[in-house]
Design goal:
By secondary structure, the protein is an alpha/beta fold. The protein is built from 11 helices and 16 strands. Helix 3 packs across helix 4. The radius of gyration is 20 Å and the shape is globular.
């Protein structure tokens, strides 16, 4: 099978950072699906895993943690899918990734593809949908179906992939959404996705949020920059919660969190498959929920650019775009 892989961890400007290779097609066992991959998208996690380091792979390593495709074959213990089903998923960071013609993935972290979307449109959704859904509904304990209506959430990094889905999920749950963006095009993007207010993350956040008439917000999601930590602590309401996905090693003074009895939650969407948690199938259910919302017209895909075909040259271009930090939504690659 064709695949885009690496053997060295190099700057994306290096022509050897990704290679076009041919690898054996794997065989499904247990609860694995063999998926014929039709489209993939690139996330910041891809660029971080690929980032330069002194390591050489003895066999080509395939990255990629967002895909849409068609089930080609199933393992003997599979009960949720059959050959021919259209699916979408983010996969498992401990296994071979989606940048290949065929991929093995556990059925418990796979959803039925939204019927109304193309494979390219669907490939933009899984990782960000899982991350945003788990951040809000599993970590912050926001009620998905409306019991938290009227509460507020500040989404820092709202124009990126996770934030773009987060806005939509928060609005579905009935929350008032304050989104951060700094450029006219990203401000327009988050407003179009449903944000009630937009504040500029390049300016002091506390003053901007309070100018909206809000002394505190009920929930805060930091989806791209822990440098806003002190502002988040100042803005979170007493007994509120902050969820974050990145920059675990930056200083995070906790005195303000303690005096407010506020909570900090880490979201890592690979935790369930990585540790084979008993509730691993929750990702199957949440992806099906997102697909239903998409097909009902209550949510939309966040793809902003599609490159074709899936090859090393286009993968390098996609990684460079993601590393630029200026992408709205998601970059997708389609077709081998």
């Amino acid at each position: 099978m064709k695949a885009v892989a690496l053997t060295q961890y190099l700057p994306i400007s290096d022509s050897q950072s990704f290679l076009d290779v041919n690898l054996p097609t794997p065989t499904p066992t247990g609860r694995d699906l063999l998926v014929a991959v039709k489209a993939v998208s690139v996330n910041p996690v891809d660029t971080k895993v690929r980032s330069p380091k002194d390591k050489v792979e003895l066999t080509p390593r395939v990255l990629g943690w967002d895909a849409s495709g068609v089930v080609q074959a199933v393992g003997p213990d599979v009960t949720l899918f059959k050959a021919g089903d259209a699916v979408y998923y983010a996969g498992d960071i401990t296994r071979a990734g989606s940048n290949a013609e065929f991929q093995l993935v556990d059925e418990r972290i796979v959803g039925h593809k939204p019927a109304s979307l193309s494979h390219a449109e669907a490939a933009a959704l899984p990782l960000t949908s899982i991350t945003a859904y788990e951040s809000f509904f599993d970590r912050l304990d926001i009620d998905r179906d409306g019991a938290s209506v009227g509460q507020s959430v500040l989404i820092i990094g709202a124009a990126g992939g996770v934030g773009s889905i987060g806005i939509q999920l928060a609005k579905h749950a009935g929350l008032t959404v304050i989104a951060t963006a700094s450029r006219p095009e990203t401000m327009a993007w988050v407003k179009a996705l449903g944000a009630d207010f937009v504040v500029n993350h390049r300016e002091p956040l506390v003053a901007q949020v309070r100018a909206l008439g809000m002394q505190y917000v009920d929930h805060i999601a930091i989806f791209n920059d822990m440098r806003h930590w002190e502002a988040a602590v100042e803005l979170i309401r007493p007994q509120g919660g902050i969820v974050t996905i990145d920059d675990a090693n930056l200083p995070m003074p906790m005195a303000g969190m303690k005096t407010k009895a506020a909570s900090l939650h880490w979201e890592f969407m690979f935790a369930r498959p990585m540790h084979q948690t008993p509730d691993m199938i929750a990702q199957h259910h949440l992806l099906n929920f997102v697909a239903q919302e998409i097909d009902a017209g209550r949510m939309r895909t966040t793809v902003s650019e599609i490159l074709s075909p899936i090859n090393a040259a286009n993968m390098r271009q996609a990684h460079a775009l993601v590393e630029s930090g200026t992408v709205r939504g998601k970059i997708v690659l389609e077709g081998f």
